[in-house]
Amino acid sequence: MPLGWYLAQGLYPLGPSSSDDEEGPCELPNGRIVCGPHGLVVCGKCCTDYSFMDEEEEEEEEEDKDEDVDDHFGRRSSVEENIPQPPSDPEERKGTGRVIPTRFIPPTDSIIPTELFPGQRTYLNITRFVHRNDPRAMLIFTDGACLNNGQPDPRAGWAMFHGPGLETKPAVSSGRVEKKGPFGDDGIQSSNRAELRAVIAALGFRHWVGEGFTTLVIATDSEYVVEGSTKWVRTWTRNNWKTNAGGTVKNQDLWKFLLGEFERWEEEGLTIKFWRIPRDWNNTADAAAKEAASRYEAPDRWTEVIGLPF
């Protein structure tokens, strides 16, 4: 894999094959969720996969129905580079569910993330999305995409938009979803896996506490990520990673790794929150994730992507 694959990506024109489901999900009379344009649970044209809704229906009934609940030094960031690093001992990074993030609740439903978290110069004059009333709180947009999702030759890519960046280039980092997970398990190429990979990349990209932040808000349009991170994992860990229907939780390796990141950051003094945003508020990360999926080949093994300074 050439080094160029690891370089952070900006915005690129999208081809006609990467269209998304602009109409959003649609609920059938039987309660099943499908894509609006084509009526499919797994739709390659829309790059969507709502199959997880079948698994989580029972979990959601058990949990609170309220949707509005609220190294490391040396990890340096750059708009220009992401450098692959050898994986650390994966066994030490499996989470137990001890730390469960909460949802971020904006002051109003109509306020957009960049209005509440405008770009500001911070550590090493790098620009971040910093809360207008709290300089110790920042925001990162994440997104995942999978071309041919649920069809032959799927290609999954992830992206994070972590600051306004330079004048002509936003601070966007992206890449392909690896063929293997963080613990050596074989991983499929799917939109849900790409969404999780984007969050993991965002959490590990920098030593955020070293930049002076105590709160990190992940802004994503993925219900799978937000509900899973703040609610469903409670049931999964209690049921030994089985759904109430007796099935095995999908993408279990990434969920365990993500739980480990939540625990690691709590020990560092960083609180993580998730903000579910509309799809059209996430265009920059969305475009970069699709570009990464179409442009690069999937790495054979898991890689930690760590940002370096300018």
From TrEMBL:
From the UniProt record, list the reaction(s) this protein catalyses.
Endonucleolytic cleavage to 5'-phosphomonoester
Q: One Pfam family, short name please? A: RNase_H
SUPFAM superfamilies given for it?
Ribonuclease H-like (SSF53098)
| Compositionally biased spans, kind Acidic residues | 54-70
> Its Enzyme Commission number?
3.1.26.4
From the UniProt record, give one GO term of the biological process aspect.
DNA replication, removal of RNA primer
Checking Gene3D superfamilies in the record gives: Ribonuclease H-like superfamily/Ribonuclease H (3.30.420.10)
- Recorded GO MF terms: metal ion binding; nucleic acid binding; RNA-DNA hybrid ribonuclease activity
- Domain spans labelled RNase H type-1: 134-294
Instruction: Give the start-end ranges of region Disordered.
Output: 54-105, 169-188
Q: Which domain of life is it from?
A: Eukaryota
Alphabetically ordered keywords of this record: Endonuclease, Hydrolase, Metal-binding, Nuclease
Residue span of the signal peptide, if any? none
Q: Which InterPro entries match?
A: RNase_H, RNaseH-like_sf, RNaseH_domain, RNaseH_sf
Q: Which PANTHER family did the record assign?
A: RIBONUCLEASE H1
Its family? Belongs to the RNase H family.
- Name of the featured protein: ribonuclease H
Which species is listed as the source? Daldinia eschscholtzii
